[in-house]
Write a structure and sequence with these properties.
The chain is of the alpha/beta class. Helices cover about 55% and strands about 10% of the residues. The protein has a five-stranded parallel β-sheet. α4 (about 80-90) packs across α5 (about 95-110), α4 crosses α8 (about 190-195) and α6 packs parallel to α7 (about 170-180).
Amino acid sequence: MRAGRNADEARLRVLVDVLVEASHGLRRELALPTSLASPADHVAEAAREQRRVPLGGLPDDDPGLLEQLLTVPRVHLLVDGYNVTKTGYGTLALADQRTRLLNSLEGLATRTKAEVTCVFDGADVDTPPVIAQPRRVRVLFSAPGQTADELIVRLVRAEPPGRPIAVVTSDREIVTAVRAAGARAVPSTLFLRRLEGHG
């Protein structure tokens, strides 16, 4: 009886050793960390991820604000499309508003090398309008049931920690939301003055 139990323990010990060795091999193969994180580590990591490269400095109404932001390396400029166009040339048809803005953004992206994303509200149409995609500007339409505001905030939150982000809008709700997510807001009027000043 005792001998049988000893044999079972020996087999169990061998099995455990094999499993331990296999787990070490798997950890090396998958390049997993050797130490386990505690719950407090996850909280600290989440707090770190909330911080972004600050795009502070000049006040919102300073004409030099946009120039300053566009010189920050790897800056991502998110543009609230219709907020800008309706502020600047709202008397034009929507298609003409989009064309005018996207042409200006293409020139801006070419000059500054900034990553530029322009978001339009597509919630009121069954399918997004067919537009010629600019080479240097990403154009997005919100899906039915989603507002451009929600898509912009989602884009800000999707960026990795440390990525500098500027959002062009005068919509107060978006300004509040993107600031809470660590992005800098730029008023549409200021942005339009910069675009129109450069043709």
